[in-house]
Amino acid sequence: MGKRSRQRQKNQNAGRDNRDTAGWGAGYADIIKENKLFENYYKELGLVPEGEFEQFMEAMREPLPATIRITGYKSHAKEILHCLKEKYFKDIQELEIDGQKIEAPQPLSWYPDEQAWHTNMSRKIIRKSPLLEKFHQFLVSETESGNISRQEAVSMIPPLLLKIEPHHKILDMCAAPGSKTAQLIEMLHADMDVPFPEGFVIANDVDNKRCYLLVHQAKRLNSPCIMVVNHDASCIPTLEINSNGKKDVLFYDRILCDVPCSGDGTMRKNIDVWKKWTTSNSLHLHGLQLRIAVRGVEQLAVGGRMVYSTCSLNPIEDEAVIAALLEKSEGALELADCSADLPGLKWMPGVTSWKLMTKEGQWYTDWSEVPSSRHTQIRPTMFPQKDPEKLASFHLERCMRILPHHQNTGGFFVAVLVKKAPMPWNKRYPKLRKDSKLSSSAAQTGRSKEAPSPGDTPHLPPEGSTEKVESNSQEEKVDKEADETPEGASVGQDAGAKPEGMCGPPPSKKMRLFGYKEDPFVFLSDDDPVFTTIQSFYDLSPDFPKLNVLTRTHEGKKRNLYMVSKELRNVLLNNSERMKVINTGVKVWSRNSEGEEFGCAFRLAQEGIYTLQPYIRSRIIRVSVEDIKVLLTQENPYLSKLEDEAHAQAQKIGMGSIVLKYIPNPNNPGEPQCPIQLCGWRGKTSIRAFVPRNERFHYLRMLGVEVFRDKQGLGQKRSDGEKDGKEEAEDAAEKDEEQEEERAADKEVDLENGNENGSSESKTDCGDKETSS
To answer: EC top class, in one word (predicted)?
Structure first.
């Protein structure tokens, strides 16, 4: 090695040491954590309680604790929690490194059922201890399997406040990279015995590339009830569904409106914000945030809840947006009191007065003080309401601001809005519409005039629902051009300009940004010949919803078959022209050319086994704990390796794809107390499990088999699976923390998570609350 190379390597190692000492998730030791403008601004606003400002600033300079959340809907959640507490946390409590006692992970006091934990362990400490390295490998592997999510603590709050039930139709407006979306999906699947909940999640993001990070997060949960779409949230199209033979407008029961923001609450993990922060960031974002929020409440069903959240502490992005929204709504919206919803969470009530400051340090307390030269940057909606009676009716104190020093978290703002009636501009718009009926119908190219029929939703009066669809784009224009102008007047002027009511896709220029091009979603017909052999081979029950099966090609051989819920099928079939769908459905079958000679060209896919298995009535082998250990630690074991009961069942089944099913025995608490279902293949004399690597590790850990690579690279696994186990454990351990954070799941990655399990961890930026460390 040359002198220059040695010096370069020395410098790189020195940089790594600096990052290690900074804490888990740090890596910007050279950035000075000072910003006088930030300090002056927040001191003057008085958002931090008196006497706590120094604590607040000290907390902002400390690295953010790493936080993990156990996937709540899976029946394996209790087993994972038991494994964490008994196997890892207990050992860590007794651990000392360099004379320092390690602080064991602690549960978040306000998160239900001990499903979320945080720890202050740094990367350097993790590398110094084999025990902690084992814990880290466990976290990485279980995250890939979808059993654990690494997510910032405050980011977990909005989904909890939505109070989701399995029948809810949910829209996540700005969803990437997807940690909160994953929470929403989990809540839909609260009952694991119901493979197809009535509700669904439509997760949207404006950035086409980030949509694939979103797909990766959602794919880990293997849900048939998630759809990822790519639209500008401020003008996301109104969707239609078929209800009792007629077209109705889709209104959502729950909406998560986690808008783009300046991100000054994320300074603890996004160190760049220290040098980039200025007050002009929030001034630039306020209008977009308000437009997104307006679009959200337009699509919310009466009686529904919308959570508005930011990772900013700035009232311009927080209370100012909420106050403007409440004023526009004229009583149709109200802030919900959530003070008792998350006991244990410390938060500050929303403020009712604030000031604006320019990046030059100029303060304004009222719109009348703003010079006309600044009217394009500063808008009337940024200032607090002057009418005391109206201000009191808003109940802005019901907003929640989380400060970093109170519970060692990031900074965050959240408000819960409940819709009491249709929005006022939806009520009066049709009256203005009558005068321009001809011009508007001529311009209506994206959909039929009759589409928004009366009775669009059971919540709304007939005229409200009709008006809803026709008016959406008009309100959008109102917000863009003149926030302070009464909606009625602007809508009237706008009627001829954009009559489609936001139901069509954005202009073609926007649509093809980033090269949007997706394969089609094609549902199988009732008499599709592909399905005939599948039906007979697996003896599917008569109630199997075969109309919900889709593929991604119009022509040629079908490579994979996916399933969606009945409700998402309804959405897909009625909105293909106005919606840019990136991904939906869970893979249930994969083509296997070898299978044709055994009676079926499609083998079962592990991703969809929990969705599909309730309908399969043949080719099921009931296995024991010991059988699963053999199947997951040996590449292709002989049938004779199985215990007698499973061996006898396997002998009766012909070659081809099979289900390996473990049913827990409540009389033996030492064994896993949750059902396990694996896809497998019955060969001529052998049997194997088709399970992705990290999922294989997950099941082995649940059964008490060690999966860990020590510093010499020796796999500690059952001896009868030494070769397979060692290679796989080494592969998993090679993915260190930096790679996990930096890899991006682009379009070419195998998003279907097959046997190779080509998954990656989401990357975050300043605007995101989720963390992947």
So the answer is: transferase
Q: What is the 3-state secondary structure (H, E, C) of 412-450?
A: EEEEEEEECCCCHHHHHHHHHHHHHHHHHHHHCCCCCCC
Tokens of 709: 């690579």
Strand-pairing partners, residue 583, are 228
Bind-site residues: 174-180, 205, 232, 258
Angstrom distance (rounded) from CA 318 to CA 351: 10
In order of 84, 318, 406, 407, the CA distances from 412 in angstroms are: 28, 10, 12, 12
- Do the Cβ atoms of 604 and 589 come closer than 8 Å? yes
Closest CA to 118 of 160, 146, 143, 154: 154
Q: 3-state DSSP call for residue 500?
A: coil
Q: Are strands 676-682 and 412-419 parallel, antiparallel or unpaired?
A: unpaired
> Is 211 marked active-site?
no
Q: Contact at 8 Å (CB) between 335 and 326?
A: yes
In the annotated binding site for S-adenosyl-L-methionine, the residues are: 174-180, 205, 232, 258
Q: Kind and range of the H or E element at 570?
A: helix 566-574
- The H-or-E segment that residue 603 falls in is strand 602-604
pTM of the predicted protein model: 0.78
CA atoms of 637 and 703, how far apart (whole Å): 18
- One-character DSSP codes across 69-101: EE-SSSTTHHHHHHHIIIIIIHHHHT-EETTEE
C-alpha count within 13 angstroms, C-beta hemisphere, residue 499: 20
3-state secondary structure of 341: coil
Q: How confident is the model at residue 539 (pLDDT cuts 50, 70, 90)?
A: very high
Q: pLDDT tens across 6-16, in order?
A: 555 555 444 43
Q: Summarize pLDDT for 278-318 with one digit per residue, the tens.
A: 999 999 999 999 999 999 999 999 999 999 999 999 999 99
Predicted confidence (pLDDT) at residue 5 exceeds the cutoff of 70: no
**Identity of the residue numbered 568:** L
* Residue 537 buriedness (CB in 10 A; 0-12 / 13-18 / 19+): buried
> Which H or E element spans position 363?
strand 363-364
Q: Is the pLDDT of residue 269 over 80?
A: yes
The helix (run of H) or strand (run of E) holding residue 551 is strand 549-551
Q: Given 235, 261, 311, 503, which residue is catalytic? A: 311
- Residue 177: cis peptide before it, omega within 30 degrees of 0: yes
Strands 581-584 and 549-551: unpaired
The pLDDT score that the predictor gives to residue 123 is 64
Helices within 174-246 (DSSP H only): 179-188, 208-219
Using CA atoms, how far apart are residues 627 and 624, in angstroms rounded to an integer? 5
State the residue for tokens 């802005």: 396
Q: What is d(CA 157, CA 184) in angstroms, rounded to the nearest whole number?
A: 11
CA gap 552, 583 in Å, rounded: 10
